[in-house]
Design a protein that fits this description.
The chain is of the alpha+beta class and 80 residues long. It contains one helix and six strands, in the order H-E-E-E-E-E-E.
Length: 80
């Protein structure tokens, strides 16, 4: 999937919730600054032949996907 297409889609439509061990919803605002959510991706190229492994690229953090959301990380906040 193309990041230029999927990242804006995720920013608009991605949502998440937290629950405790009993299933009770925990308001995200109460989780504090250690609660973070981010989206990562990497390219995987199919092998040319069936007896080869795929070529896997490095991880890329797409901070724009959670920008403006509770727990969203800012540019450069996560590195691998």
């Amino acid at each position: 999937m193309d990041p230029e297409t999927i990242i804006p889609f995720l920013n608009q439509h991605l949502n998440y919730r937290a629950r405790d061990s009993t299933g009770t919803v925990i308001p995200l605002e109460t989780l504090g600054p250690s609660f973070t959510v981010f989206v990562v991706g990497r390219t995987v190229l199919e092998p040319a032949r069936g007896d080869q492994f795929p070529v896997v690229g490095g991880w890329v953090v797409y901070s724009e996907a959670t920008e403006g959301k509770i727990g969203g990380v800012g540019e450069g906040a996560i590195t691998f």
